Amino acid sequence: MKLMATGGAAAMLCALVLGYQASASAEPDAPAPTFTLTDTNGKAHNLADYKGKYVVLEWLNYGCPYVQTHYGSGNMPTLQKDWTKKGVVWLSVVSSAPGKQGHYSPSAMNDMTKKMGGAGTAVLLDLTGQVGKAYGARTTPHMFVIDPKGTLLYAGGIDSKPSRKPQEDPEVVNYVTQALNESMAGKNVSVKKARPYGCDVKY
Fold first, then answer.
1. Domain containing 68 — which CATH number?
2. Threshold 0.85, pTM exceeds
3. What integer pLDDT is reported at residue 25 of this predicted model?
4. Residue 71's domain spans which residues?
5. What does the chain look like in DSSP terms, one character per residue?
6. Domain-located, residue 108
7. Over the stretch 152-189, which tens digit does the pLDDT of each residue have?
8. Tally of domains in the chain
């Protein structure tokens, strides 16, 4: 399988990871692991504060070619804009450890988010990797959808296959959108867990 971004140097820095192995505490239909993290503007976010709202967690590493594809194609920013307009809280979580790929200072992260067109609610800094490990986050991106009761609805890849322009590929099923649409319509989520793909999280 080919990496989705151009630039051999960038690609070499980011290993493709396929597979799913979440911890028991991050299984769909179970309560989502609670946490408090500070965002790039110094504001603390406690997951419990968002009870009553849908929450999307997106594991983020701007140095990852797969992340660059989802942002560069406009796929991730469009999803963020569309769902936050509907009241969904979209939290991008950076678990890259200091000195590892994807780790930036808060101000540099804000600059990168602006450059990449990020439009989520906030970018959270998980410097110890504790939250990422609690969720079993393995790749960037790795997605989790939480319902208003705090129950994990979906965990896994953003969609059904890597694509350069996933929003334009008729064969691609966006599992995040599907989970949110189904749950909001009062239906059971048809795909609760799927294999993530992308770069390994740089714990």
1. 3.40.30.10
2. yes
3. 52
4. 33-200
5. ---SSS-HHHHHTS-EEE-----GGG-TTSBPPP-EEEETTS-EEEGGGGTTS-EEEEE--TTSHHHHHHHHTSHHHHHHHHHHHTT-EEEEEE-PPTTSTT---HHHHHHHHHHHT--SSEEEE-TT-HHHHHHT--EES-EEEE-TTSBEEEEE-SBSS--SSGGG-TT--BHHHHHHHHHHTTPPPS--B---EEEEP--
6. yes
7. 999 999 999 887 777 777 889 999 999 999 999 999 99
8. 1
Cβ pair 196, 20 in contact under 8 A? yes
**Assigned domain for 104 exists:** yes
Q: How far apart are CA 163 and CA 159, in angstroms?
A: 9
- Is residue 23 included in any domain, yes or no? no
